[in-house]
Specification:
This protein is an alpha/beta fold. About 25% of the residues lie in helices and about 25% in strands. This is 25S rRNA (uridine-N(3))-methyltransferase BMT5-like domain-containing protein.
């Protein structure tokens, strides 16, 4: 038999090993599965237990049925803080790890509150620290995120940098490009409702060790200050 034809949707293809974390009602995962015709290349996860997911996201049923029908591995109670140590994931490597619109929950706070922003930053930092260990060589971490105030105060590029990840590309995120995808709120406050997407992007990060793919300005930053024999490289 001939090799199956690769199928694509936006940045993703049926030939990639894909991990999706923090899925709300699993509509994004289901969209990819439909586009590929099969989901055997995918692992889709959420933080909630199966019962809690049904209560919080009643619309998840058809999407989960779609994923199961197409062979996707669906995992519950996966925390991004330590997902690389989870027995169901620790032996796996992925070409792309996707976290769409990460959110630490509201906890009665406003999105502009410093404490909540710090909670969001801690969540993303833990995610980057964990995800970096789960990438194949040349693999990417994708974060869909609003880039207007106060969300740009999360400074996700800085957080990724701390985990030795660099920004390879930043591209517009448009929900209409993913038929059937419906974004969901984070936390327990009206969690099955939508939120306005406004100015959104997919941030694509790679491990810094893949220096052949690094933009020139980051290569310069990486090597600046290194020594070669007795010579200090102070600028390029």
């Amino acid at each position: 038999m001939g090799k199956k034809k690769e199928k694509k949707i936006q940045h993703y293809s049926s030939s990639q090993k894909i991990l999706l974390v923090g899925e709300g009602n699993f509509s994004f995962s289901a969209c990819l599965a439909k586009a590929f015709g099969s989901a055997r290349n995918m692992v889709a996860t959420c933080l909630h237990s199966k019962d809690a997911l049904r209560r919080k996201h009643q619309s998840s049923g058809p999407h989960l049925a779609e994923l199961n029908r197409r062979g996707c591995l669906v995992l519950y109670e996966i925390n991004v803080y330590d997902m690389n140590q989870n027995p169901s994931l620790m032996s796996k490597k992925f070409d792309v790890i996707i976290f769409n619109f990460p959110h630490a929950g509201h906890c009665g706070l406003n999105e502009t509150d410093y404490l909540l922003i710090e909670m969001h930053r801690n969540l993303l930092q833990a995610f980057f620290n964990s995800a970096r260990h789960m990438l194949t060589r040349g693999g990417e971490v994708h974060v869909a995120h609003r880039d207007d105030c106060p969300y740009n105060r999360w400074k996700i590029e800085e957080l990724a940098e701390r985990a030795d990840l660099y920004l390879k590309e930043k591209v517009d995120f448009n929900a209409v490009d993913y038929p059937g995808y419906i974004n969901k709120r984070g936390g327990a406050v009206r969690c099955d409702g939508k939120f306005p997407l406004k100015s959104c992007f997919t941030f694509k990060f790679c491990l810094k060790e893949n220096t052949s793919q690094m933009p020139d300005n980051l290569l310069e930053k990486k090597f600046k200050g290194m020594t070669l024999g007795n010579v200090v490289i102070s600028g390029l």
